[in-house]
Protein backbone atom coordinates (compact mmCIF):
# COMPACT_ATOMS: atom_id res chain seq x y z
CA UNK A 1 0.00 0.00 0.00
CA UNK A 2 1.28 3.45 -0.89
CA UNK A 3 2.07 5.63 2.11
CA UNK A 4 1.71 9.42 2.15
CA UNK A 5 3.43 12.32 3.88
CA UNK A 6 0.87 14.87 5.00
CA UNK A 7 1.17 18.38 6.46
CA UNK A 8 -1.49 20.22 8.45
CA UNK A 9 -0.88 23.96 8.10
CA UNK A 10 -2.31 25.73 11.10
CA UNK A 11 -1.31 22.79 13.27
CA UNK A 12 -2.19 24.81 16.37
CA UNK A 13 -5.86 24.89 15.42
CA UNK A 14 -8.30 23.36 17.89
CA UNK A 15 -9.75 21.42 14.93
CA UNK A 16 -6.45 19.59 14.35
CA UNK A 17 -7.11 16.65 16.74
CA UNK A 18 -10.44 15.93 15.03
CA UNK A 19 -8.88 16.03 11.57
CA UNK A 20 -6.08 13.72 12.70
CA UNK A 21 -8.58 11.28 14.18
CA UNK A 22 -10.56 11.22 10.91
CA UNK A 23 -7.34 10.79 8.94
CA UNK A 24 -5.88 7.96 10.99
CA UNK A 25 -9.23 6.18 11.22
CA UNK A 26 -8.74 5.50 7.49
CA UNK A 27 -5.30 3.90 7.91
CA UNK A 28 -6.35 0.69 6.14
CA UNK A 29 -7.32 2.71 3.04
CA UNK A 30 -5.22 5.89 3.27
CA UNK A 31 -1.96 5.15 5.06
CA UNK A 32 0.05 8.06 6.44
CA UNK A 33 3.76 7.43 7.03
CA UNK A 34 4.56 10.90 8.34
CA UNK A 35 2.25 13.56 9.75
CA UNK A 36 3.60 17.06 10.22
CA UNK A 37 1.98 19.94 12.03
CA UNK A 38 3.22 23.28 10.72
CA UNK A 39 2.40 26.60 12.36
CA UNK A 40 4.10 29.95 12.88
CA UNK A 41 2.90 29.92 16.51
CA UNK A 42 5.07 27.30 18.22
CA UNK A 43 3.59 27.74 21.69
CA UNK A 44 0.04 27.16 20.53
CA UNK A 45 1.00 24.27 18.25
CA UNK A 46 2.96 22.54 21.01
CA UNK A 47 -0.09 22.62 23.27
CA UNK A 48 -2.40 21.19 20.61
CA UNK A 49 0.39 18.76 19.76
CA UNK A 50 0.04 17.16 23.20
CA UNK A 51 -3.46 16.04 22.24
CA UNK A 52 -2.49 15.12 18.68
CA UNK A 53 0.29 12.87 20.03
CA UNK A 54 -2.29 11.00 22.11
CA UNK A 55 -4.58 10.71 19.07
CA UNK A 56 -1.73 9.22 17.02
CA UNK A 57 -0.96 6.75 19.82
CA UNK A 58 -4.62 5.75 19.92
CA UNK A 59 -5.29 5.36 16.19
CA UNK A 60 -1.98 4.62 14.44
CA UNK A 61 1.21 4.62 16.54
CA UNK A 62 3.27 3.72 13.45
CA UNK A 63 2.87 7.28 12.14
CA UNK A 64 5.86 9.58 12.58
CA UNK A 65 4.59 12.84 14.09
CA UNK A 66 6.56 16.05 13.57
CA UNK A 67 5.75 19.50 14.97
CA UNK A 68 7.64 22.31 13.29
CA UNK A 69 7.75 26.01 12.50
CA UNK A 70 10.42 25.49 9.81
CA UNK A 71 9.02 25.53 6.25
CA UNK A 72 11.57 23.14 4.78
CA UNK A 73 11.03 20.57 7.53
CA UNK A 74 7.28 21.05 7.27
CA UNK A 75 6.82 20.77 3.51
CA UNK A 76 9.75 18.59 2.38
CA UNK A 77 8.46 15.87 -0.02
CA UNK A 78 4.90 16.33 1.22
CA UNK A 79 2.16 14.61 -0.80
CA UNK A 80 -0.79 16.40 0.82
CA UNK A 81 -1.18 19.71 2.60
CA UNK A 82 -4.31 20.38 4.64
CA UNK A 83 -4.51 24.17 5.08
CA UNK A 84 -6.54 25.66 7.92
CA UNK A 85 -4.69 28.86 8.77
CA UNK A 86 -6.37 31.59 10.80
CA UNK A 87 -4.36 34.77 10.35
CA UNK A 88 -4.63 36.93 13.45
CA UNK A 89 -6.29 34.17 15.48
CA UNK A 90 -9.51 34.83 17.38
CA UNK A 91 -8.30 38.23 18.57
CA UNK A 92 -8.71 39.50 15.01
CA UNK A 93 -11.91 37.55 14.42
CA UNK A 94 -13.34 39.50 17.36
CA UNK A 95 -12.48 42.75 15.56
CA UNK A 96 -14.00 41.43 12.31
CA UNK A 97 -17.27 40.90 14.17
CA UNK A 98 -17.39 43.88 16.52
CA UNK A 99 -16.28 46.72 14.22
CA UNK A 100 -19.20 46.26 11.76
CA UNK A 101 -21.70 45.81 14.60
CA UNK A 102 -20.67 49.25 15.90
CA UNK A 103 -22.30 50.60 12.72
CA UNK A 104 -25.32 48.24 12.86
CA UNK A 105 -23.86 46.06 10.12
CA UNK A 106 -23.56 42.26 10.21
CA UNK A 107 -20.47 41.20 12.16
CA UNK A 108 -19.39 37.76 10.96
CA UNK A 109 -16.02 36.14 10.30
CA UNK A 110 -16.53 35.20 6.62
CA UNK A 111 -19.52 37.30 5.51
CA UNK A 112 -19.87 41.04 5.04
CA UNK A 113 -17.06 43.43 6.05
CA UNK A 114 -15.64 40.92 8.52
CA UNK A 115 -15.12 38.43 5.70
CA UNK A 116 -13.50 41.08 3.49
CA UNK A 117 -11.15 42.03 6.34
CA UNK A 118 -10.26 38.39 7.00
CA UNK A 119 -9.63 37.92 3.27
CA UNK A 120 -7.19 40.83 3.14
CA UNK A 121 -5.26 39.22 6.03
CA UNK A 122 -5.14 35.77 4.47
CA UNK A 123 -4.28 36.27 0.78
CA UNK A 124 -0.51 36.72 1.08
CA UNK A 125 0.08 34.11 3.81
CA UNK A 126 -1.66 31.66 1.46
CA UNK A 127 0.64 32.74 -1.38
CA UNK A 128 3.62 32.11 0.91
CA UNK A 129 2.33 28.63 1.75
CA UNK A 130 1.91 27.76 -1.94
CA UNK A 131 5.46 28.94 -2.60
CA UNK A 132 6.72 26.64 0.16
CA UNK A 133 4.87 23.75 -1.50
CA UNK A 134 6.38 24.59 -4.89
CA UNK A 135 9.86 24.78 -3.37
CA UNK A 136 9.85 21.80 -1.01
CA UNK A 137 6.89 19.45 -1.56
CA UNK A 138 6.44 16.47 -3.87
CA UNK A 139 5.94 17.81 -7.41
CA UNK A 140 2.46 16.22 -7.48
CA UNK A 141 1.44 17.71 -4.13
CA UNK A 142 -2.17 18.62 -3.46
CA UNK A 143 -3.28 21.39 -1.11
CA UNK A 144 -6.78 20.82 0.26
CA UNK A 145 -7.74 24.20 1.65
CA UNK A 146 -10.15 24.93 4.49
CA UNK A 147 -8.69 28.38 5.23
CA UNK A 148 -11.35 31.07 5.31
CA UNK A 149 -12.77 33.16 3.78
CA UNK A 150 -12.54 30.40 1.19
CA UNK A 151 -14.23 32.32 -1.64
CA UNK A 152 -11.77 35.22 -1.46
CA UNK A 153 -8.79 32.93 -0.88
CA UNK A 154 -9.77 30.79 -3.89
CA UNK A 155 -10.22 33.81 -6.15
CA UNK A 156 -6.91 35.34 -5.11
CA UNK A 157 -4.94 32.10 -5.51
CA UNK A 158 -6.28 31.48 -9.01
CA UNK A 159 -5.13 34.99 -9.88
CA UNK A 160 -1.77 35.05 -8.08
CA UNK A 161 -0.74 31.37 -8.28
CA UNK A 162 -2.82 29.93 -11.16
CA UNK A 163 -0.70 26.78 -11.49
CA UNK A 164 -0.86 25.79 -7.83
CA UNK A 165 -2.28 22.35 -7.10
CA UNK A 166 -4.94 23.58 -4.69
CA UNK A 167 -8.53 22.49 -4.12
CA UNK A 168 -10.67 24.82 -2.01
CA UNK A 169 -13.42 23.22 0.05
CA UNK A 170 -15.87 24.12 2.82
CA UNK A 171 -17.57 21.86 5.34
CA UNK A 172 -20.70 24.00 5.78
CA UNK A 173 -22.68 22.40 2.92
CA UNK A 174 -21.65 19.00 4.27
CA UNK A 175 -22.74 19.99 7.80
CA UNK A 176 -26.12 21.05 6.38
CA UNK A 177 -26.32 17.73 4.50
CA UNK A 178 -25.62 15.95 7.79
CA UNK A 179 -28.66 17.70 9.25
CA UNK A 180 -30.65 16.85 6.12
CA UNK A 181 -29.71 13.20 6.65
CA UNK A 182 -30.97 13.38 10.23
CA UNK A 183 -34.22 14.97 9.06
CA UNK A 184 -34.68 12.32 6.33
CA UNK A 185 -33.48 9.50 8.62
CA UNK A 186 -30.66 8.33 6.37
CA UNK A 187 -26.87 8.28 6.25
CA UNK A 188 -25.14 11.47 5.07
CA UNK A 189 -23.22 9.50 2.47
CA UNK A 190 -26.48 8.35 0.87
CA UNK A 191 -27.37 11.95 0.01
CA UNK A 192 -26.53 13.36 -3.42
CA UNK A 193 -27.00 17.12 -3.64
CA UNK A 194 -27.26 19.48 -6.59
CA UNK A 195 -26.01 22.92 -5.56
CA UNK A 196 -24.83 26.24 -6.98
CA UNK A 197 -23.40 29.50 -5.71
CA UNK A 198 -20.26 30.96 -4.21
CA UNK A 199 -18.73 29.75 -0.97
CA UNK A 200 -21.02 30.66 1.94
CA UNK A 201 -23.44 32.02 -0.66
CA UNK A 202 -25.40 29.24 -2.33
CA UNK A 203 -28.44 27.01 -2.63
CA UNK A 204 -29.31 23.32 -2.83
CA UNK A 205 -31.57 22.64 -5.83
CA UNK A 206 -32.11 18.88 -5.53
CA UNK A 207 -31.63 16.36 -2.74
CA UNK A 208 -31.65 12.65 -3.58
CA UNK A 209 -31.35 9.78 -1.10
CA UNK A 210 -30.03 6.62 -2.73
CA UNK A 211 -31.33 8.00 -6.03
CA UNK A 212 -34.82 8.93 -4.75
CA UNK A 213 -35.78 12.62 -4.99
CA UNK A 214 -36.51 13.94 -1.50
CA UNK A 215 -36.39 17.65 -2.34
CA UNK A 216 -40.04 18.55 -1.80
CA UNK A 217 -40.28 16.55 1.42
CA UNK A 218 -37.21 18.31 2.76
CA UNK A 219 -38.38 21.76 1.64
CA UNK A 220 -41.68 21.27 3.48
CA UNK A 221 -39.80 20.38 6.67
CA UNK A 222 -37.33 23.27 6.39
CA UNK A 223 -40.14 25.78 5.81
CA UNK A 224 -41.47 24.83 9.23
CA UNK A 225 -38.42 23.95 11.30
CA UNK A 226 -35.34 25.12 9.44
CA UNK A 227 -32.44 22.66 9.42
CA UNK A 228 -32.92 21.65 13.06
CA UNK A 229 -33.24 17.85 13.11
CA UNK A 230 -36.11 16.19 14.96
CA UNK A 231 -33.66 14.73 17.50
CA UNK A 232 -30.23 15.58 18.89
CA UNK A 233 -28.01 13.65 16.49
CA UNK A 234 -26.12 16.70 15.22
CA UNK A 235 -22.51 16.86 16.31
CA UNK A 236 -21.47 19.23 19.08
CA UNK A 237 -19.64 21.72 16.85
CA UNK A 238 -22.89 22.84 15.24
CA UNK A 239 -25.21 22.15 18.16
CA UNK A 240 -24.73 25.10 20.52
CA UNK A 241 -27.24 27.92 20.91
CA UNK A 242 -25.94 30.24 18.18
CA UNK A 243 -25.75 27.42 15.62
CA UNK A 244 -29.23 26.17 16.49
CA UNK A 245 -30.51 29.68 15.89
CA UNK A 246 -28.67 29.78 12.56
CA UNK A 247 -30.20 26.46 11.45
CA UNK A 248 -33.64 27.68 12.52
CA UNK A 249 -33.33 30.89 10.47
CA UNK A 250 -33.32 28.84 7.27
CA UNK A 251 -37.09 28.52 7.63
CA UNK A 252 -37.58 32.28 7.17
CA UNK A 253 -35.59 32.24 3.93
CA UNK A 254 -37.48 29.19 2.68
CA UNK A 255 -40.84 30.78 3.45
CA UNK A 256 -39.96 33.85 1.36
CA UNK A 257 -37.93 32.17 -1.39
CA UNK A 258 -39.17 28.56 -1.60
CA UNK A 259 -37.55 27.57 -4.90
CA UNK A 260 -34.26 26.32 -3.42
CA UNK A 261 -32.87 25.26 -0.04
CA UNK A 262 -30.42 27.92 1.24
CA UNK A 263 -26.96 27.63 2.68
CA UNK A 264 -27.31 28.85 6.27
CA UNK A 265 -24.85 31.69 5.60
CA UNK A 266 -27.48 33.33 3.41
CA UNK A 267 -29.06 34.61 6.64
CA UNK A 268 -26.36 37.29 6.83
CA UNK A 269 -27.26 38.65 3.40
CA UNK A 270 -31.04 38.15 3.34
CA UNK A 271 -31.90 38.65 7.04
CA UNK A 272 -29.14 41.11 7.95
CA UNK A 273 -31.28 43.58 9.90
CA UNK A 274 -32.66 40.80 12.10
CA UNK A 275 -29.19 39.32 12.62
CA UNK A 276 -27.86 42.69 13.80
CA UNK A 277 -30.89 43.32 16.02
CA UNK A 278 -30.44 39.97 17.76
CA UNK A 279 -26.64 40.29 18.10
CA UNK A 280 -24.83 41.12 21.33
CA UNK A 281 -22.38 43.78 20.15
CA UNK A 282 -20.15 43.22 23.16
CA UNK A 283 -20.11 39.43 23.09
CA UNK A 284 -19.94 37.86 19.65
CA UNK A 285 -19.32 34.38 18.29
CA UNK A 286 -15.54 34.94 18.63
CA UNK A 287 -16.00 35.37 22.37
CA UNK A 288 -18.14 32.23 22.53
CA UNK A 289 -15.41 30.21 20.81
CA UNK A 290 -12.60 31.65 22.94
CA UNK A 291 -14.58 30.92 26.12
CA UNK A 292 -15.76 27.54 24.83
CA UNK A 293 -13.81 25.34 22.42
CA UNK A 294 -10.51 27.27 22.74
CA UNK A 295 -10.55 27.29 26.54
CA UNK A 296 -11.67 23.68 26.68
CA UNK A 297 -8.78 22.34 24.65
CA UNK A 298 -6.06 24.33 26.41
CA UNK A 299 -7.51 23.54 29.86
CA UNK A 300 -7.46 19.88 28.86
CA UNK A 301 -3.77 20.14 27.95
CA UNK A 302 -3.00 21.75 31.31
CA UNK A 303 -4.95 19.01 33.08
CA UNK A 304 -3.14 16.29 31.14
CA UNK A 305 0.25 17.80 31.94
CA UNK A 306 -0.73 17.87 35.63
CA UNK A 307 -2.50 14.50 35.93
CA UNK A 308 -1.74 12.43 32.84
CA UNK A 309 -5.49 12.05 32.27
CA UNK A 310 -7.35 13.30 29.19
CA UNK A 311 -10.66 12.57 27.44
CA UNK A 312 -9.80 12.66 23.75
CA UNK A 313 -13.34 12.08 22.49
CA UNK A 314 -14.37 15.66 23.28
CA UNK A 315 -12.03 16.88 20.50
CA UNK A 316 -13.29 14.59 17.72
CA UNK A 317 -15.43 16.81 15.48
CA UNK A 318 -17.31 14.85 12.82
CA UNK A 319 -17.93 16.17 9.30
CA UNK A 320 -15.16 18.80 9.46
CA UNK A 321 -12.45 16.16 9.67
CA UNK A 322 -14.28 13.52 7.66
CA UNK A 323 -14.89 15.75 4.63
CA UNK A 324 -11.30 16.90 4.10
CA UNK A 325 -10.08 13.30 4.35
CA UNK A 326 -12.73 12.07 1.91
CA UNK A 327 -11.66 14.70 -0.64
CA UNK A 328 -7.97 13.88 -0.18
CA UNK A 329 -8.64 10.18 -0.70
CA UNK A 330 -10.48 10.88 -3.94
CA UNK A 331 -7.49 12.92 -5.14
CA UNK A 332 -5.04 10.24 -4.02
CA UNK A 333 -6.79 7.28 -5.61
CA UNK A 334 -8.53 8.93 -8.59
CA UNK A 335 -11.83 7.61 -7.26
CA UNK A 336 -14.01 10.31 -8.85
CA UNK A 337 -16.15 10.78 -5.74
CA UNK A 338 -18.76 13.52 -6.04
CA UNK A 339 -18.27 16.45 -3.66
CA UNK A 340 -19.24 20.13 -3.45
CA UNK A 341 -16.07 22.14 -4.05
CA UNK A 342 -14.92 25.53 -5.35
CA UNK A 343 -13.82 25.78 -8.99
CA UNK A 344 -13.27 28.44 -11.60
CA UNK A 345 -16.66 28.71 -13.29
CA UNK A 346 -15.72 28.33 -16.97
CA UNK A 347 -19.32 27.72 -17.95
CA UNK A 348 -20.36 25.49 -15.04
CA UNK A 349 -23.02 28.11 -14.27
CA UNK A 350 -23.82 29.26 -17.77
CA UNK A 351 -24.91 32.83 -17.03
CA UNK A 352 -22.13 33.78 -14.57
CA UNK A 353 -18.65 35.05 -15.52
CA UNK A 354 -16.11 32.38 -16.42
CA UNK A 355 -13.61 33.68 -13.84
CA UNK A 356 -16.06 33.53 -10.92
CA UNK A 357 -15.02 31.05 -8.22
CA UNK A 358 -18.20 29.02 -7.85
CA UNK A 359 -19.17 26.21 -5.49
CA UNK A 360 -20.77 23.31 -7.38
CA UNK A 361 -20.71 19.50 -7.38
CA UNK A 362 -17.64 17.99 -9.02
CA UNK A 363 -16.04 14.60 -9.49
CA UNK A 364 -12.68 14.61 -7.70
CA UNK A 365 -9.90 12.95 -9.71
CA UNK A 366 -6.12 12.66 -9.36
CA UNK A 367 -5.90 15.71 -11.66
CA UNK A 368 -8.38 17.78 -9.64
CA UNK A 369 -12.10 18.50 -9.88
CA UNK A 370 -14.30 17.88 -12.92
CA UNK A 371 -17.27 20.25 -12.33
CA UNK A 372 -20.82 19.20 -13.09
CA UNK A 373 -22.56 21.79 -15.25
CA UNK A 374 -25.44 23.55 -13.56
CA UNK A 375 -26.82 25.45 -16.57
CA UNK A 376 -28.51 28.84 -16.26
CA UNK A 377 -29.75 30.10 -12.90
CA UNK A 378 -32.76 32.41 -12.32
CA UNK A 379 -32.43 36.20 -12.25
CA UNK A 380 -32.76 36.71 -8.48
CA UNK A 381 -29.98 34.24 -7.67
CA UNK A 382 -27.81 35.39 -10.56
CA UNK A 383 -28.14 39.04 -9.49
CA UNK A 384 -27.16 38.66 -5.86
CA UNK A 385 -24.35 36.22 -6.72
CA UNK A 386 -22.94 38.75 -9.19
CA UNK A 387 -23.05 41.45 -6.53
CA UNK A 388 -21.21 39.26 -4.01
CA UNK A 389 -18.73 38.02 -6.61
CA UNK A 390 -17.94 41.62 -7.61
CA UNK A 391 -17.32 42.53 -3.95
CA UNK A 392 -14.91 39.61 -3.57
CA UNK A 393 -13.17 40.39 -6.87
CA UNK A 394 -12.65 44.01 -5.84
CA UNK A 395 -11.13 43.09 -2.48
CA UNK A 396 -8.67 40.77 -4.22
CA UNK A 397 -7.73 43.58 -6.61
CA UNK A 398 -7.38 45.95 -3.63
CA UNK A 399 -4.88 43.57 -2.02
CA UNK A 400 -2.86 43.08 -5.20
CA UNK A 401 -2.84 46.74 -6.23
CA UNK A 402 -2.65 48.23 -2.71
CA UNK A 403 -5.73 50.25 -3.62
CA UNK A 404 -7.79 51.99 -0.94
CA UNK A 405 -10.38 52.95 -3.55
CA UNK A 406 -10.93 49.35 -4.63
CA UNK A 407 -11.19 48.25 -1.00
CA UNK A 408 -13.85 50.93 -0.47
CA UNK A 409 -15.64 49.72 -3.61
CA UNK A 410 -15.55 46.15 -2.27
CA UNK A 411 -17.06 47.20 1.05
CA UNK A 412 -19.65 49.45 -0.61
CA UNK A 413 -20.65 46.70 -3.05
CA UNK A 414 -21.25 44.15 -0.29
CA UNK A 415 -24.94 43.56 0.32
CA UNK A 416 -24.59 43.72 4.11
CA UNK A 417 -23.46 47.38 4.05
CA UNK A 418 -26.15 50.05 3.51
CA UNK A 419 -24.14 52.95 2.04
CA UNK A 420 -20.72 54.18 0.95
CA UNK A 421 -20.60 56.40 4.06
CA UNK A 422 -20.94 53.37 6.34
CA UNK A 423 -18.56 51.36 4.16
CA UNK A 424 -15.88 54.04 4.56
CA UNK A 425 -16.27 54.22 8.33
CA UNK A 426 -15.95 50.46 8.69
CA UNK A 427 -13.04 50.26 6.25
CA UNK A 428 -11.10 52.99 8.05
CA UNK A 429 -11.62 51.26 11.41
CA UNK A 430 -10.58 47.94 9.86
CA UNK A 431 -7.38 49.48 8.46
CA UNK A 432 -6.43 50.66 11.94
CA UNK A 433 -7.21 47.27 13.49
CA UNK A 434 -5.32 45.32 10.81
CA UNK A 435 -2.15 47.42 10.59
CA UNK A 436 0.17 44.47 11.13
CA UNK A 437 -1.70 42.16 8.75
CA UNK A 438 -3.07 43.99 5.71
CA UNK A 439 -1.18 45.15 2.61
CA UNK A 440 -0.79 48.94 2.54
CA UNK A 441 -3.82 50.57 0.92
CA UNK A 442 -3.24 53.97 -0.66
Automatic annotation (TrEMBL):
Give the positions of the site Increases basicity of active site Tyr.
Answer: 109
Q: What is its EC number?
A: 3.2.1.122
Q: Which residues form a coiled coil?
A: none
Return one Gene Ontology term, BP aspect: carbohydrate metabolic process
Query: What cofactor requirement does the entry state?
Result: NAD(+)
- Pfam families associated with the record: Glyco_hydro_4, Glyco_hydro_4C
Question: Looking at the keywords, is NAD present?
Answer: yes
Q: What keywords would UniProt list here?
A: Cobalt, Glycosidase, Hydrolase, Iron, Manganese, Metal-binding, NAD, Nickel
Q: Where does substrate bind?
A: 93, 148, 285
* Domain named Glycosyl hydrolase family 4 C-terminal: residues: 195-416
EC class (word):
hydrolase
InterPro entries recorded: Glyco_hydro_4, Glyco_hydro_4_C, Lactate_DH/Glyco_Ohase_4_C, NAD(P)-bd_dom_sf
Any single GO molecular-function term of the entry would be:
oxidoreductase activity, acting on the CH-OH group of donors, NAD or NADP as acceptor
Protein family (similarity comment): Belongs to the glycosyl hydrolase 4 family.
Q: What is this protein called?
A: Maltose-6'-phosphate glucosidase
Gene it is expressed from: malH
Amino acid sequence: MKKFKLVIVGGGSTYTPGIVKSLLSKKEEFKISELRLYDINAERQNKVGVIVKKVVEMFDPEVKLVLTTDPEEGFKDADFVFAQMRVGLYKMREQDEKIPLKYDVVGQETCGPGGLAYGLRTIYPMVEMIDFCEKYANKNYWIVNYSNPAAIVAKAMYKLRPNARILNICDMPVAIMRNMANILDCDRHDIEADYFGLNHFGWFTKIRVSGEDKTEELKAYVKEYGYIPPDSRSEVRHNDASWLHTFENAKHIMQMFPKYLPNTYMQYYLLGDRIVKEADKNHTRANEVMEGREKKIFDAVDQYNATGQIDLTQFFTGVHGEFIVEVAMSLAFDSRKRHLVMVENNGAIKNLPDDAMVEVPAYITKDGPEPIRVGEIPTFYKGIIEQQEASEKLVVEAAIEGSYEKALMAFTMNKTIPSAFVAKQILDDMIEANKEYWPDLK
